[in-house]
From TrEMBL:
Residue intervals of the EAL domain: 24-274
Coiled-coil parts of chain: none
Domain of life: Bacteria
The protein's name: EAL domain-containing protein
Amino acid sequence: RTKIEGRNGFHFFEPGMDGQTLAKRGLERDLRGALQRGEFEVHYQPQIDLLTGRMTGAEALLRWRHPVQGLVSPADFIPIAESTGLILPIGRWVMETACRDFAAHMSGLRLAVNLSAVQFLRGDVVALVREALRSSGLPGSRLEIEITESLLLEKDSNTLDALKALKEMGVGIALDDFGTGYSSLSYLRSFPFDTIKIDRSFVKEADTNSDCAAILEAISALSAALDLTTVAEGIETEGQLAYMKNLGYQCGQGYLFGKPMPLEDLFHMTAGVGIPA
Ligand code: C2E
Ligand code: MG
Ligand code: MG
Ligand code: MG
């Protein structure tokens, strides 16, 4: 087993590559080209205050407009981008694009951007965010970053320092997909979260499965006690909306309110006027 260090120091290569490895190599090449050719887009999904029904902000979600395959979901290429290190330039592009979009066109609305664990462990997220805020003019208080438990599992001491530095810039920290993974409650104590986002697998069964309902209720009470804002992910029906609201969830995101959409459509939703070209 030979290990060849790539430019980022974490490319792995095995002699006699199997079909899967070859496919991965092809995808890596395609991803690299996609960034250069400008095939990535950032779409935005509205986040709604469940009490008032008003939009409070939106989550930036990466899309790849593939010349042959059409719009490709991040679930299909983020893992390769992470294992090849391409998530560093791609993630930077997302952060800069989304901050610029929001500073220019979405006055007052908050922006949530997903950061991969690889960006924390191999990149400098504090410098990345500082630069994106500086060049766009977006105030730190309008940005929230979303991380998952996989990052916290790494027990990297720099992670906590980075999160604290982001908070000092006014940036919010959200724990994404809560309830999947390990969901160790000690994370909630050890890291400076502002928001927890309940995974949509729970929300999906909120009004039909009593175990899910019990878990959702406990998380709601815990969040209130810890002064964390709760976001319910993946609300698709009026029933789920009523249920989550009733349990005290403050914010919601889901197809019921809007799917991820291009900036232009989000702008129409908020102002009803087109973005000047
Ligand atoms: P996520 O951060 O948990 O984003 C929410 C996902 O749930 C999005 O999938 C969104 O389209 C989907 N979703 C929202 N509401 C509903 C609903 O009502 N029903 C259903 N069935 N799905 C809903 P998407 O856009 O495919 O993204 C998948 C994941 O890819 C994201 O999960 C996030 O982990 C990752 N991702 C997306 N963009 C980025 C990015 O710029 N950087 C990084 N590192 N990861 C990203
Ligand atoms: Mg997210
Ligand atoms: Mg999520
Ligand atoms: Mg996710």
